[in-house]
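Sample entry (253 residues):
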Amino acid sequence: MRILKAILIDDESKSRNNLRQLLLEYCPNVEIIAEAGSAVEALKLIRELNPDLLFLDIEMGEVSGFDLLKLLNGQQKFEVIFVTAFDKYGIQAVKACAIDYLLKPINILELSNAVEKATIQINPKKENERLKELVANIDRGDDEQRIAIPLSDKIEFLAINKIIRLEAEGNYTHIYVDHKKQYLVCKTLKEYQELLENHNFIRTHQSHLINFRKISAYVKTDGGYIAMDDGSQVPISRQKRDEVLLRILKGKS
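Predicted structure, serialized as tokens:
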């Protein structure tokens, strides 16, 4: 069993105490080597102790968990499991880069699963590309944001503004991008809707999610459908028609 050296970083001592107890009881391969009540304190500990894993709160006063990662940019040979109470934007950013997070109050099964995944992913000799991408995304404008696409042999980072549409196939999703390229990903369309809802994407149908900026026309014949920039035709369900038409008439998301 591989032992992971971990640092707990949270400005609330009660939250750190709770997490410490859960780790001691349910995650025997996690060795807590330090705790920090602020990002500034954590920065020093990380550089001194070279941990395998951080349990990192997002909101910590003036210096957030994301700010801490920016300061460590280029030194990210550890894994991070974010721990947060809410922060919708933060969770979307984390999920977009395929990094784990836990919502407070912490669920024991989710904690165990997150630690198990971190154990598999940690490579102390190699920089964590997903963390680097997360740090880069924080400073990018909306038009430059990227999301992680988990493929069989790698994780590819895809510019959101290149995506034309997404189509569900059971628990899988087809992602169609510029230049006729497409990906088949083992994630549901609902998951991608949650990731992309603030990036000009709209659900037109139970099986279809489109990039509003890639619409070329709304065709009223044949029951009505959306023509996309790549020439594809996307149906509009009866339940979604009013919402989609309103968005088109307004000419914005």
